[in-house]
Amino acid sequence: MRKTEINNPRYPHYLRIVRKVGKDWLDDDDNIVDLAGSNNETDEVADTGEIVVYEGVGRSYTETTTTGDKKVDTNKRKASIPVRFNEWSTLVPMSGDIVYVTKGAVTEEWEVKDFEPDNNRSVVYGEMNRNFNME
């Protein structure tokens, strides 16, 4: 009998959760403060307008719920992240953050709706708009 080795890792996808940050009209150009509290002109926030909340491995999957009308379809999504709830720093995923998921050659982009703990991991709930960033 021939044995076939199966490669099925627990967290096969690459996730990047980003919080878009806009400059407040009252801020001085010389004194930009990000959400983490640092006060440095060369911060990533000052340059890109976004804060990386999480970047690393995870598992993204659908909740098999698709809703929509003639113009827009949305899917409910989940992402399992191998970080315990009490191990997050001051930044945690929040509603409105954008999740970029890389599954092989496919990249998905969806918005965070909720975040909660689970057994030795964290689960991020979201919604993917099928017309998001499409022309």
Overview of this structure, please?
- This protein is mostly beta strands and 135 residues long.
- It has a domain at 13-19 and 57-129.
- It contains one helix and six strands.
- It has one helix spanning 44-48; strands at 13-20, 50-68, 73-81, 98-103, 106-118, 121-129.
- Strands 1-2-3-6-5-4 form a six-stranded antiparallel beta barrel.
- A hairpin with a 2-residue loop joins strand 4 (98-103) and strand 5 (106-118).
- The termini are far apart.
- Mean pLDDT is 82; it is low at 38-43.
Radius of gyration: 18 Å
Helix proportion: under 10%
How many helices does DSSP assign? Answer: 1
Query: Describe the biggest sheet?
Result: 6 strands, antiparallel, barrel
The count of DSSP E runs of length 2 or more, i.e. the number of strands, is 6
Shape: globular
> Whole-Å distance between the termini?
52 Å
Label the structural class: mainly beta
Strand order within the widest beta sheet: 1-2-3-6-5-4
Low-confidence stretches: 38-43
Q: Hey, roughly how much beta strand do the residues contain?
A: over 45%
H/E element sequence: EHEEEEE
Mean pLDDT: 82
Describe what is shown at a glance.
The protein is mainly β.
Observed structural traits:
mainly beta; 6 strands; 135 residues; 1 helix
Write the SSE topology.
Blueprint lengths: L12 E8 L23 H5 L1 E19 L4 E9 L16 E6 L2 E13 L2 E9 L6
Antiparallel strand pairs: 1-2, 1-4, 2-3, 3-6, 4-5, 5-6
